[in-house]
Structure formats: structure tokens, C-alpha cells
Description:
By secondary structure, this protein is α+β, with helices and mostly antiparallel strands.
Amino acid sequence: MSKSDRAETQHNHRMSTVFSLLGKAHTLAILKEFVLDDDEPIRFGELEDELDISPNTLSRRLGELVEAGFLERTQYDEIPPRVEYEMTQMLNDLEPMFRELDEWMDRYCSD
Length: 111
């Protein structure tokens, strides 16, 4: 296998990994909340109120997005516990793609 073939294989694997995560149920809806809203941290309860996702699924997706580097999680030592999520620079760099997708959906996916 040539060096360029190996590089292409690695690139395809990385793309497949990202697409696999983004293709999971509710992942794009969660990311949209961060990208298309203000840049403020969002609490778990706010996401739960805004999105029609079970708490277990929401928790699992948020964990996956933190692990993948899209979100940063901050837990505060308070009672009751407070956890906030904030987008990272990696997700911020995808903002133009989300805005274009949002415009595309307005054009072609209207009710």
C-alpha cells in the first residue's frame, strides 16, 4: 500500500467516525442548540426542556460529544449539582456548515 493510499484510508476512517457520531439519533439537534443559539453554556435541564429526547439518550449523546471534542462539560460543586456544556473551538469551526444547512432546510424542507 502506497503512502497516499494509507493517507486516504486514514482520512476515510476519520470521516466515517465523524459521520457515525453525527448520524446518531438527536446528535445534530443537540449540536444545533449550541451552534445556532448564543455562545453561552447550556445546562442539561435546558437541553432536556428544549429537545424531545429522553434523559438517558441526552446524557449518552452529550457524553459522546464531550469525548469527541465537540463540547466541554463543567460540573460545579453545588447542591443541587449543576452541570453546564459549552461548545469547543472544534464545534465553533463548524458553525458555517450548520448555518448553511439551516438555510437549506428553510428552502427545501418547509411544511
